Amino acid sequence: MFLLGTEYKFPPTELASDEGILAIGGDLHPNRLLEAYNHGIFPWYNEGEPIVWYSPDPRMVLFPDKVRISKSMRKIIRDKYFKVTFNQYFKEVIRYCKSTQRAGQQGTWITDDLETSMIYLHEQGIAKSVEVWQNNKLVGGLYGLDLGSLFCGESMFSIESNASKFAFISLAQKLEKDKYPIIDCQVYNDHLASLGAVEISRSDFKKYLP
Q: Do residue 44 and residue 74 come from a single domain?
């Protein structure tokens, strides 16, 4: 494990631990975040703890044309139960993601510093959001970093059942149309797997990096 200094540099990702931990420390400056994501590295830690930087092997990804849409979700889409917008209410989305309580998780990894940096990257056209609406109310969404060659998903939230699924499916369909090869989902979870995400090796994932 490496201790980061003031330079915005990271060790080779092949040196990460079996758990995917590559380094600790540093800060969440936008330049450091871009250096990290461009090399397949991301911060993941609880509020009040040192910053931990990960590059897991295997890596959870979704190939946009492989997104899995259940029969019930197809009905929701067909009935126009939700509406979707893209990159219009980024600040609201990240704040909902930050405040959402998640089972088995203490606190949030979306700290004030991370929120500030992500909003700055949004203003630079790099961090983007998907917003899901019901009766003119924001009920779900997600945000992440658009690196041009792939989209790095960061966090989702849902106030209304199925709203985050709708956001993810809408993103996948848009990225497929825009010919993005993959969405980075970082690490395995059952929810993403149910939507068609799969694990690939770190070396295969790195082929998609800018």
A: no
